[in-house]
Amino acid sequence: MADLALGAPIVAHAEIDRANRLDPERAPGVAPGHLRYYVEAELSSLIRSDNALPREVRYLVDVPLDPNGDRPRLRGEEVLIMATPVRGRPGEIQLVAPSSQIRWTPEREQIIRRLLTEAAAPGAPGIVTGVGNAFSVPGALPGESETQIFLSTSDGRPVSISVLRRPNQRPRWSVSLSEIVESASPPPQRDTLLWYRLACFLPAELPRTTFESMDPNQISVARQDYQMVIGDLGQCTRYRS
Question: Which residues, in sequence order, are CB contacts of 4 under 8 Å at separation 6+?
């Protein structure tokens, strides 16, 4: 849902009024086991849109056959749609991806609303595109160290990860969204926007280019700290390609 909703100009909750199946010759490129429909739907709520939309919208959607191999029943179904407007055609929209019509539930709408609200906030994290550089420095005591990992983002907004090691304590890590590293910022909770930006886009391992100037001991600690962060974030499981 984050992949689809965050990049969509239009996000809405709608109820399908009519769904007409297109003949195969008018529906090129449909995936096997799918049918293409011309849908007319009434908007129940407009979750995000820069411009006003009419009450009824029209669009094409490819949907899979039901488990018995029959045509799906779409009329009356409540859906969440992520789309873009069609220029010069008021009321016509285009789904941003084949899978960007999903069945509506209150829980799904709540998740999408929360993500979009977080993304619109002034201090929202940028889209993580990789790891910029990292360094690790030992502390005054054996087993004490601090690792800083600076991330690259699509819009240049700063995002960094700090890992602190203290003797006889589990390493602690935090995230900063400003130029000043704030060690007090806790790791993000799962399914928040910041968690999504990190868990779903960070590489599985630190790239070699991030620690070219560090000695072997520092590199080893930085790698361990990074793997701890990846493990704490947990797997980002996607249900669409």
Answer: 82, 96, 97, 99, 100, 102, 240
Per-residue model confidence as pLDDT tens digits over 144-201: 899 999 999 988 888 999 999 999 888 999 999 887 765 567 899 998 999 999 999 9
Residue type, 37: Y
Tokens of 66: 């039901």
Which residues pair with residue 18 across a beta bridge?
40
Torsion of the alpha carbons at 181, 185, 191 and 197, rounded to the nearest 10: 0
Give this prediction's pTM: 0.85
DSSP annotation string for 81-125? EEEEEPTT-TTBEEESSTT-EEE--HHHHHHHHHHHHHHHSTTPP
Structure token pair of residue 93 = 């929209």
pLDDT tens profile 9-35: 999 999 999 999 999 888 898 989 999
* Closest C-alpha among 64, 83, 84 to residue 74: 64
